[in-house]
Amino acid sequence: MSNRSQRFTSSDRRRSGVERQSQLNNRSAHNAEESGADEDQDDEEEEEEEENDDEANSNEDINQTVKNLVRYVLACDYQRATVKRSGITEKIIGKQRGGFKRVFEETQQQLRNRFGLELVELPARQKVTLREKKAAQKSKGNNKSSTSYILKTILPHEYRNPEIMPLFKDWSTSDEYAYIGLYTIIICLISLSADRQLANHQLDRYLKRLNLDRNTGLGTTSELLARMKKENYLQETKTMDKDGETSEWRVGPRGFVEVDNEAIKRFVQKIYSENAPVDLLHRLQRSLGTEINKNQETPDG
Prior knowledge:
Elements: H1 3-78, E1 83-84, H2 85-93, H3 99-115, E2 117-123, H4 130-138, E3 145-153, H5 175-191, E4 198-199, H6 200-209, H7 221-230, E5 234-241, E6 244-251, H8 253-258, H9 261-272, H10 280-288
Antiparallel strand pairs: 1-3, 2-3, 4-6, 5-6
Helix pairs in contact: 1-3, 5-9
């Protein structure tokens, strides 16, 4: 073999070796890319799984918090205690992710769908004295929000009757129904009075006509009024007159919600029954400042 042939053979071998090395390098790089892509995909899948796990855990935490809040609200209602937003945050939600709004909305859905109830925000207490009015003007421009709630039924009125929801067999022995009747009467008296307020001597005169001026069957009259104040059915304002210190009585925040204008109308109509004067609805409308439903012509309407 000539020297020239040997040089070409050697050159071809070197070129072939370089090409093979280049192919190996490319193949290794391709494999590395595929391996890297697989690792990236695995990382993405792991991150997605972690996010799903976090979301699932978060939903479980929210569901448990909602259950806790439902129990808390029902317990407060049993004791006639108001549900305060600060109490919900402190005792139930804490630092839970999701915050107040989501938990509150889901709790409302549970209460409506399962119990026929919903949380209603109480109106702020009426500012009566000059000191209270000045304090209200300084704080948030006389904000009427109270951030306190109570439970109220959302069942239609026609479903709230003894045939569907029977009372106790002997309702006269039930202190609960007696208490409801007493605060309903007093709230109606105040709401139908001028300026929706009653001086202490006026309330005393009405209670005397009902033989409730000293004892109510649930304790003394003063004890009963103190309880109604504590539970926000009534609001008492101390004033001074020529005879010294006295009081003015108004409907409290809970009283406004539980015994609203429609409830007052129905209650008065039930009392009058068939003896209701023709203009009873107009007189009630004038006292309560509400519109009359023209279709509501009978005491049972």
